[in-house]
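Possible regression after last week's pipeline update?

I re-ran a chain I had predicted before the update to compare outputs. Posting the input and the new output here so someone can diff against the archived version. Not blocking, just want to make sure nothing changed silently.
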Amino acid sequence: MSLLAPLYLIGATAIALPIILHLIRRRPKSQMTFSSLMFLRPSPPKLTKRSRLDDWPLLLIRALALLLIAIAFARPFFRSSQTTGLRDVGRNVVLMIDTSASMRRAGIPDAVRRHAQTLADQLGADDRISIIAFDSQPRTVVDFQQATAVELAARRQLVLDAVDQSPPSWRHTDMAAALMEAADLVTVGISDDESLDPTRTLDELDDGVAVPTQVVLISDLQAGADLEALQAFAWPDNVRLDVRLVKPSGSTNASPRLLNRTDATSDLVAVADDAWRIRIANSENADHGNFRLAWGDANAFQRSESEMDIQVPPGQTRVVSMTPPKPGDATLILSGDDDDFDNTFYFVTPEVKRLTLLHVGNAQGPPQQRPGFFLSQVPLANADREVDFRDLSAADSAAIRDVLRTEASADEVTLPLVVLTAPVQSDVADDLQSYVKNGGHVVVAIGPSDDAAQWQQTLESIGDLTGVRISEATVDDYAMWSQIDFRDPLFKPMADPKFNDFSKIRFWSHRELIVDPPAEDSMWKVPCRFDDGQIAIARRTLGKGRLTILTSGWDTEDSQLALSTKFIPLVFAWFEASDTVAADQGNARIVGIPDAAGIVWEAPGIQKSDDGDATVAVNLPASESRTEPLDLAALENLGIPLGKVESATTVAMKDRQLRDVELESEQGLWRMALLIALGLIACETVYSAIRRQVESTEMV
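New output (post-update):
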């Protein structure tokens, strides 16, 4: 027999209390002398009846009733043979070790080893463990089969060896991919483990007993870690994440980024002046904000004369201007924070590109009213490029073809954009089609419909189209652009509410454009329409290049577009989109780790491409510099339960206790004990009444 609440048996000791009190011999504590008794010998009182039990049956009935009541409160039950054994099933543990660049901070490697040592010491003989190291991608260092094949001491040493063999890299943190990899490990069978059925999952034994499963994450949990993929991931049930947070020796971390280089593979923004703008971001948990910037060479040896003091409060970002670097400079170096793993930003200064913008239009009318005049006023040149504007007449076919053919034979792209504001002859249109297919960009602004037939022929030839029809649209007063897609690259720079108002740009006339295939087809993009629903701008890809069509011009006879503040950003968008071809083929790039082009760079620095033709500046992703700890609630909001897992023995004991409660409830022995106790109390009452009646009769 077993008891569910054995402590209630202490109440059975109440049986002895009346017996003990009954057996205590009491003597008189005081004496009184009487004169009449002075000549008698003293004789102590005899307590023979108080020193023995007068009624054994009555005592036994009462004691037995008290004992049964205590047993009833102790909840007795009979345990079956299936629940008497306690099987130690062990745990399934997946250890995740963060090896991203932020783990290079001072104090973190030692903390990682301490946590790994603690986990290794906690491993039991039946525990199974797998180890994953991760940065931008996870990799399995030790799998379950390897760990279960060795003894406990060697298994514990595997944990420490995995830490030693997984030093921090220079890559960013993709925690989502690592967590999904760990989840996959705990939901597959272990065919080599004899204690498990290979057809079952890791969280269930052959007898149905749940196996405690734990994912242990050793990481600095920096806020820049990528968690986006977890939003659509279903975390396994009954698997908890135990986060072992490691902290660096210091908390202040700042990082510099250049903001005035124009490279297609970087996030840098161009500026018109000669000053170089630098963005410095300071961590939210920083304890100070005083830093120093300086230019340096490719080996990160800084020039002291270029040093500049800056102040960036914790959790904020500052943009400062610096004098341009000198020849030979290749690094921007920040100092003054606690960690230097991201204090150096590498860059390369490419040669200034010499590009040409070709405009083909009519030579009639005053120059100030021609579309080419407004194009020539757009400041496309910057520190990285010189732009030569060429304005040719549509009638000068020989000059146009000469420019296009010269471009086609050049080793590098020097003509990123061609703008047509007048129809051209068929031979020129054929050359423009080849130009587009080879990666060029042609922007066609359709003029008045008097030349509709020539425009139709030009568009069909350039765009490889059929069934192009152009007609003059009916405009009562003026038309406006509407249905603007600010997600499109053309309008994205103006998506801010401060700049997205196009209601003040009026179009006095525009054309109706019908193309085959229609503009609604997937090969076309229509980022803007007029308020009457007609196409305002249409774009399609042709070969490696693009063709953009405007159904209205920007000269003063057609619209107010050239006189608005939106004209310059639009021309920049056309030109910059075309200039990416030149940037990709240039001799200088700024990339991250790993590079989007497929080349994996192992460390920051000035590197050479595999073919040796390109010099590449390799830098850490900006997200890796966000070193403030991530709020653990972010993981819980993604459906990942946090906490430590209980040992297998504890889980088995709790499971057996639940079964004991179920057995006790089914058997109900306490009810029987209580009924018997009540019966005994009734018998005691009757017996006592009869005994008193007998004693009263004897006294009479």
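Follow-up from reviewer: compared with the archived run. The first helix runs from residue 16 to 23. Marking as no regression found.
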